């Protein structure tokens, strides 16, 4: 059994870890595509145990299971293809109002994080008629040097993290699914397949789009593309509509 401590830098809500980052940590112990289910918010700065066996992997705090993962095969057809310039234009044309962000210190999408610390991936909607799916969100991303692993490419847990929050933006922004944009949500499950990891300094694009809703569950997909639209990784996410206090871990 291996123990880990999640640094406060990698928060999502103030008291717990970013969901996509945690999913990526567990997925490292699964060969191939992985599905991770989050059962409770993983705390920051505390010893957590990773239990790996032939069935998959679990993240535990003492006797409580926080997350569990297994190997699956995922397929996401019809990925919207956007180039880096198009992603930059979407962000420029529709700047994000940082004062409305529910989790401003989130490692992935928090606008209060400085460059080089948080990823600052804050997706914006594409204009209707752009040739993409309804409600498509997009953001440019250039990974920082400290995100690289020993092989030089961006570590897989950061690829998972980068694919996470954009699906939340797409889900909350899905007006065609009767979402108002004011809902509070938490990641419940995430699956991903990584074909190739980028390198620090590469110009990348994150594209995300909602795929459905079932009561309190909202479903969305995301993809990581190279600057020329080459497919690098893809994810499927299930978000849960929750009370604001639950989102904050109160």
Notes on the structure:
The protein is an alpha+beta fold. It folds into 2 domains: 70 residues, Roll (Thiol Ester Dehydrase, Chain A); 164 residues, Thiol Ester Dehydrase, Chain A. It is built from 4 helices and 11 strands. It has an 11-stranded antiparallel sheet. α1 packs antiparallel against α3.
Shape: globular
Estimated helix fraction: 10-25%
Strand content: 25-35%
Q: What is Rg?
A: 17 Å
Biggest sheet statistics = 11 strands, antiparallel
CATH architecture of the largest domain: Roll
CATH C-level label of the largest domain:
Alpha Beta
What structural category characterises the helix and strand content?
alpha+beta
What count of domains describes the coordinates? 2
Number of DSSP E strands: 11
The CATH homologous superfamily of the largest domain is termed: Hotdog Thioesterase
- Poorly predicted regions are none
Order of helices and strands: EHEEEEHEEHEEEEH
Mean pLDDT: 94
Explain briefly what this protein structure is:
With 250 residues, this protein is α+β, with helices and mostly antiparallel strands. The chain is 16% helix and 32% strand.
Write the layout of secondary structure elements.
Layout: E1 2-5, H1 19-27, E2 34-38, E3 47-53, E4 56-61, E5 64-71, H2 84-93, E6 124-125, E7 137-141, H3 156-172, E8 185-194, E9 204-214, E10 217-226, E11 231-241, H4 244-247
Antiparallel strand pairs: 1-3, 2-5, 2-8, 3-4, 4-5, 6-7, 7-9, 8-11, 9-10, 10-11
């Amino acid at each position: 059994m291996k123990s880990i401590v999640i640094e406060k830098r990698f928060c999502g809500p103030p008291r717990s870890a970013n969901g996509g980052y945690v999913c990526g940590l567990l997925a490292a112990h699964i060969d191939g595509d992985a599905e991770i289910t989050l059962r409770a918010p993983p705390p920051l700065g505390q010893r957590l145990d990773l239990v790996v066996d032939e069935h998959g992997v679990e993240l535990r705090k003492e006797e409580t299971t926080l997350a569990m993962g297994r190997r699956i095969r995922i397929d996401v057809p019809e990925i919207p293809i956007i180039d880096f310039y198009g992603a930059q234009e979407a962000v420029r044309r529709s700047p994000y109002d940082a004062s409305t962000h529910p989790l401003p210190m989130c490692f992935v999408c928090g606008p209060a994080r400085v460059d080089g610390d948080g990823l600052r991936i804050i997706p914006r909607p594409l204009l209707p008629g752009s040739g993409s799916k309804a409600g498509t969100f997009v953001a440019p991303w250039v990974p920082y040097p400290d995100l690289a692993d020993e092989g030089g490419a961006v570590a897989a847990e950061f690829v998972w993290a980068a694919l996470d929050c954009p699906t939340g933006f797409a889900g909350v922004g899905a007006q065609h699914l009767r979402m108002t944009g004011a809902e509070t949500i938490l990641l419940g499950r995430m699956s991903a397949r990584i074909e190739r990891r980028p390198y620090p300094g590469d110009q990348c694009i994150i594209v995300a789009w909602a795929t459905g809703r079932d009561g309190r569950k909202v479903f969305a997909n995301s993809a990581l593309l190279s600057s020329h639209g080459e497919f690098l990784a893809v994810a499927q996410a299930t978000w849960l509509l929750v009370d604001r206090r639950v989102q904050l871990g109160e």
